[in-house]
């Protein structure tokens, strides 16, 4: 089976949930300590052996392109000041992988955004990583999905159990008993984008990691606007399932929804606490806050 070496990261949304910040700064540039969220996503792809990344952007997203580009003036300045560690950090960024950009001219939905990648991806399998869903650096979800494609030739989607009341915020999967598949794989038999909880076939939510063969592009091209008047990736996947097996990779934990304000703050705190250089100071801040707010037992 062919190797998955390309990834597509859609980053064209307006980020209205994070206004006013997102008026002039793309939501993908929200800082998680000292790195923008999208850098975590790019690094996750690279950890999985991907060396060609296409980021789908829109106008007003120049900061993302600048972030992954060389900055000769900054490098020169850091060099002159003997700031070697910082110099290495900014240089590494541009050398991480081949990072390409293409614009989604019109905001017609996630399916449409992925469809734009067709010419770049060509006849190869590829991964899709949504920037709002940040995975802990130790996560094995995407690697497992890529291995599944390489071993069985099966497209897959990451699935996570969410509280029933929240399933309407996600794509939702119907799954079948799959004793013949190794854990944590399940066979997906249906997909519906953001169903009312009462109509949801399960509480298994689509989380933003997918691995596809190139045939998904034909299905995206044939998909009409669905939920919210947008061309939905879940609808294209549903159409593909008529011809081709789609597996679910069920996982729990290690996912951060940086599109939600409380979870964004949790992300900064949890990943900040994992930093040797910050842990002690951050713990002191958290202790002081808890004490002051009278939340100590
Ligand atoms: C998108 C997908 C949805 C998926 C979600 C995961 O929705 O359309 O199927 O469950 O990402 O984060 P969005 O959150 O962009 O509205």
Give a nutshell description of this structure.
With 297 residues, the chain is α/β, with parallel strands linked by helices. Helices cover 34% and strands 23% of the residues. The strands form three sheets. The protein has a nine-stranded mixed beta sheet. The protein has a two-stranded antiparallel ribbon with strand order 2-3.
Looking at this protein, list some descriptive labels.
9-stranded mixed β-sheet; binds 1-O-phosphono-alpha-D-glucopyranose; two-stranded antiparallel ribbon; 34% helix; 297 residues; alpha/beta; globular; single chain
Question: What is the makeup of the main sheet?
Answer: 9 strands, mixed
Share of helix, binned: 25-40%
- Main-sheet strand order equals 5-4-1-6-11-8-12-10-9
End-to-end distance: 56 Å
Instruction: Give me the count of strands.
Output: 13
* Percentage of residues in DSSP E strands: 15-25%
Give unreliable regions as ranges: none
Summarize the helix and strand pattern as letters.
EEEHEHHHEHHEEHEEEEHHEEHH
Any idea what the shape is? globular
Radius of gyration: 20 Å
Structural class: alpha/beta
Total helical elements: 11
Identify the bound ligands. Answer: 1-O-phosphono-alpha-D-glucopyranose
Average pLDDT, all residues: 93
Layout of helices and strands, plus pairs?
Layout: E1 6-10, E2 31-32, E3 35-36, H1 37-47, E4 52-57, H2 62-67, H3 72-80, H4 84-95, E5 98-103, H5 110-115, H6 118-121, E6 126-129, E7 133-135, H7 141-152, E8 155-161, E9 171-176, E10 185-193, E11 204-212, H8 216-221, H9 233-241, E12 246-250, E13 255-257, H10 261-273, H11 279-292
Parallel strand pairs: 1-4, 1-6, 4-5, 8-12
Antiparallel strand pairs: 2-3, 6-11, 7-13, 8-11, 9-10, 10-12
The protein binds 1-O-phosphono-alpha-D-glucopyranose.
């Amino acid at each position: 089976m062919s190797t998955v070496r390309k990834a597509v990261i859609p980053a064209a949304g307006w980020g209205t949930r994070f206004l006013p910040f997102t008026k002039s700064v793309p939501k993908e540039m929200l800082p998680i300590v000292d790195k923008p969220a999208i850098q975590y996503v790019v690094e996750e792809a690279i950890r999985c052996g991907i060396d060609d990344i296409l980021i789908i952007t829109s106008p007003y997203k120049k900061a993302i392109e600048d972030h992954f580009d060389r900055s000769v003036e900054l490098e020169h300045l850091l060099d002159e000041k003997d700031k070697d560690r910082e110099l290495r950090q900014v240089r590494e960024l541009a050398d991480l992988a081949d990072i390409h950009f293409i614009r989604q001219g019109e905001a017609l939905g996630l399916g449409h955004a992925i469809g734009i990648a067709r010419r770049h991806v060509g006849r190869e399998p590829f991964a899709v990583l949504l920037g709002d869903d940040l995975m802990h650096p130790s996560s094995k979800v995407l690697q497992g999905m890529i291995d599944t494609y390489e071993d069985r030739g099966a497209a897959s989607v990451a699935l996570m159990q969410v509280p029933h009341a929240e399933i309407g915020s996600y794509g939702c999967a119907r799954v079948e008993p799959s004793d013949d598949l190794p854990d944590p794989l399940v066979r997906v038999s249906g997909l519906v984008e953001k169903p009312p909880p009462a109509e949801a076939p399960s509480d298994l939510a689509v989380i933003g990691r997918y691995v596809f063969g190139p045939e998904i592009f034909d299905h995206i091209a044939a998909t009409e606007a669905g939920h919210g008047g947008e061309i939905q990736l879940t609808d294209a996947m549903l159409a593909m399932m008529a011809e081709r097996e789609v597996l679910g990779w069920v996982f729990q934990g290690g996912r951060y929804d940086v599109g939600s304000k409380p979870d964004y703050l949790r992300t900064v705190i949890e990943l900040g606490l994992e930093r040797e250089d910050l842990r002690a100071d951050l713990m002191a801040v958290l202790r002081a806050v808890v004490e002051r707010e009278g939340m100590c037992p």
